[in-house]
Structures are given as C-alpha cells and as structure tokens.
Write a structure and sequence with these properties.
Elements: E1 9-10, H1 48-63, E2 68-70, E3 80-84, E4 92-96, E5 99-101, H2 103-106, E6 109-120, E7 123-127, E8 137-141, E9 144-150, E10 156-162, H3 163-176, H4 187-210, H5 220-223
C-alpha cells in the first residue's frame, strides 16, 4: 500500500534479513503490467534468493515511503509480502494467543504464503497503492482478520490483527491473488477514475513494448517453488 494510508510494513524477527543479505531498491511495477494480475506461486522452501528478494522488497517499500509491498509489485508472481504499520498513527492491534503485542517492536513482518480467515466487523477508510500512484479511494474491509503464514525462519505464524494492520494484510493478500484495490472500489468511484486508470495502463503497456526483454523472475528451482 501507499503512504496515503499511512506508512506500514511488518516482520516479527528481522534476524533472517541481517548479515550479508543483499538489499537493493527495485522498480515498482505499475498498473497495466500483467504480473499484477497474476496469482502468486506458493513458496515451498526459504532459499537465499527468497531472503534476498524479501530484503530488497523491504528496502524498496521504505524508499518509496510505502506501507506494504507484494512480490507482484516488483515483478515476481510469488506468495510473498512485507508490511509495516509501526510509523502510522492509525490504530492497529497484533494479537497472538490472546495477547496484544507492541506494534513498534513487532514490525516489519515478512509473510510467505499468507492466508486470511475469520473476518469480523467492518471498516471503511482511504487506500492507495504504490503500483497505482496518485489514486486513492475509500475501501471497505474487515475490521479484524486472522493471518496464517510462514516466516523466513520456516516456522508458521498465526496471529489476529485489527485496524490498519488488518487493512494492510487484506490489501497485500489481495495483491498475491491478482486482485487490486481498484477492484474493491464502488461503481461510482471506478467510473470517476476510469480515464486516469486507462491512461496509466496505456503508458505501462507502451513502456513494456519498448523493453527488449521481459522482467526476470525467480526460477522454480531457485525460488523454492515446486514445479507444476
């Protein structure tokens, strides 16, 4: 998500990203690129390439003043996202086994193969997206969700979240399934933004047409993916 929703990105244990893991700022994929509509492939093993990609996604999100980033947004159709709500004033809760954790010390999170369940309540608030710059809209989301994912240490993470963190999780998991926040807009908003989105899509496709080679993606054997 973009800073229009206030900054956020999250990760329980930063240690797997420390040491010699390379971090670079990646190009953020823009609206109209086919990869944004691609469902991410499940990550079966945490390889050095996955760690490197996660580290670069964190670096990219921070450089862009974003609050969340999915692998599709940097050209990889993988089930990998990063989120951090620690710098936002908007309320969030992260709950494990009934205990609410401190958001500041719990961020950022790196989530592999995340799944959402048990949606409760409703919240309506402004959202934006780094892949769709200068576009914001009021989006309806669940107020609380349960997240089940794998961390970079290969261990399962299960937690409940509310507020902005719940919104972040829903926005990013949508990305991993090829769903964009514009798909969640009401009909009137979509109509009002149709021209802007069409222009953005046209510009992205024109840029792709001039690119000599397609964006490189991680090979299955290196990314930890199981070949289909």
């Amino acid at each position: 998500m973009s800073p229009s929703c206030n900054s956020w990105l999250f990760h329980f244990d930063a240690s797997p990203l420390c040491g010699y893991t390379q971090r670079v700022v990646l190009e953020v994929t823009k609206y109209g690129h086919p990869v944004l509509r691609a469902k991410g492939k499940r990550i079966e093993r945490v390889t050095p390439e996955i760690r490197e990609l996660a580290a670069s996604m964190l670096e990219t999100m921070h450089a862009e003043d974003g609050v969340g980033l999915a692998a599709q947004q940097v050209g990889h159709a993988l089930m990998l996202t990063v989120i951090d709500v620690s710098s936002s004033e908007r309320p969030s809760q992260l709950i494990i086994d009934g205990e609410s954790l401190d958001i500041a010390t719990s961020m950022p999170l790196v989530l592999l193969n995340p799944r959402l369940s048990k949606p409760e309540g409703e919240q309506i608030a402004s959202e934006g997206c780094l892949s769709i710059p200068d576009v914001n809209a009021e989006i309806r989301r669940a107020e609380k969700v349960t997240v089940r994912a794998t961390g970079l240490d290969g261990k399962e993470l299960v937690f409940d979240c509310t507020g902005l963190l719940a919104r972040a999780a829903q926005h990013e998991v949508d990305h991993l399934n090829g769903i964009l926040f514009v798909d969640r807009m009401d009909a009137a908003t979509r109509v009002s933004l149709a021209g802007k989105l069409k222009k953005m899509q046209k510009e992205t496709l024109a840029k792709l047409a001039k690119t000599p080679k397609p964006r490189r993606t991680l090979a299955p054997t290196k990314s930890g993916l199981v070949r289909s």
